[in-house]
Request: fold
Amino acid sequence: MLWRKASCFPSRHCKFTELLVIREHERIGHCGVSATLTQLRKNYWIPKGRQLVKTIIRTCLIFKKYNAKPADQLSGQLPRDRITQSPPFQIVGIYFTGAILVKDNQETHKSYVSLFTCAVTRAVHLELVSDMSTKCFLLALRRFLARRGNCKVIYSDNARTFKAAEKELAYFANILKDSEFQNFVADKGIHWKFIVERAPWWGGFYERLVKTIKDPLRKILGKALLMFEELSTILSEVEVIVNHRPLRYTWKTIQESRNHSHRPTSSS
Reply:
């Protein structure tokens, strides 16, 4: 049926055929290979037409401009703290999630999740705090150090980054300036490092884990409104779930080795 409709059979190796393909390609608004070939076959039958159309369309600047694939981002080298072998939670990143509502009798209050993540193993430790005061954060930090061992370096966003973020997170900038907090960090021998200003991707190793935590938390909680102690318990269970995520692809064969996951322990 298609052969009866074709009124001309040009050779695929002549200049006329090339100009014909270009004309039809431009007439239909620089569409793709299939659209151009369909338009051509209304009046012409070109041997190995799809291959020829594909070759010619590749030279069309307009088609290349609007159908080009984005360039791959060249990633820089990871900092030394991320790749140096060390016990879990020796190099730590700290971040706060947004407010989560909890109930207290007939009232609701805001609470916040303090995220501690190991820069080397990517394991997480979650602490629920009742407010963004210096006292509550120091208590959360003390609980973290008591369970995971003293850390050497802690990374966090700088003060300007927090001020530009949500209102609740802006309070964390004031905590970092508090003399009580600075004395505590100095007594523990912790080196606190701030990421470069206007370079939030420097803190990507802890910001990325916020989504990893929120996914199971959202599915577990749904629209439920829990008490502070209940939410703290749920966070402990979510912490275990996240820390047992697989570190590599899970193969289908029975001969595969046991899948490794995070099981961080406190350092001495």
Q: What stands out?
A: The chain has a mean pLDDT of 83. The longest helix spans residues 204-221.
